[in-house]
Amino acid sequence: MKSFLGEPARPGRSLAYCTDTRPCEGSLLLAREVEVLVHDSTFSHALQAGAISTTHATAVEAAHVATESGARALWGWPISNRHDEANEALMFQKARALFPMTFLSRDFLVWEVPRLRERDL
Predict the structure, then answer these.
(1) What is residue 8's DSSP assignment?
(2) Measuring CA to CA, which of 11, 19, 25, 117 is 20 to 30 A from 66?
(3) Rounded (to 5) percent helix, strand, coil in the chain
(4) Distances (CA, A) of 57 to 13, 17, 30
(5) Burial readout 70-81 (b: 16 or more C-beta within 10 A, e: otherwise)
(6) Is residue 43 within 8 Å of residue 58, measured between CB atoms?
(7) pTM of the predicted model as reported, rounded to 2 decimal places
């Protein structure tokens, strides 16, 4: 396969960015088969009522979106300052139990988005 410039095609990169939102059909569609899903993970699952009332998501809910959409990796964002490091670790341990490729974002973190799977060419 050739690109529009006549060069050999190579896999691209895909990322879905779903922040300040509840899990919804739109996030599932946007995140379908992406390499990286960055999803709102403001609340622990124990505080789901707060997430619902403020239209945010829990880390566990973000893991469900990643699973259902077929994403390859999930980065939780933003993390509320109501959580200390131990609480954050527990939040993401629970999310990782549902979706093993779950990671916690940090300020100034650099992570290269991998190229699309070869099957997507």
Answers:
(1) B
(2) 11
(3) 35, 20, 45
(4) 25, 13, 16
(5) ebbbbbbbebbe
(6) yes
(7) 0.83
Residue type, 7: E
Q: How far is CA 6 from CA 2, 9, 31, 65, 118, in A?
A: 5, 8, 29, 37, 19
What residue type is assigned to position 76 of the chain? G
- Under 8 Å CB-to-CB from 73, ≥6 apart: which residues? 35, 36, 37, 66, 101, 102, 103
pLDDT tens per residue, range 16-74: 999 889 999 999 999 999 999 999 998 888 889 999 999 999 999 999 999 999 999 99
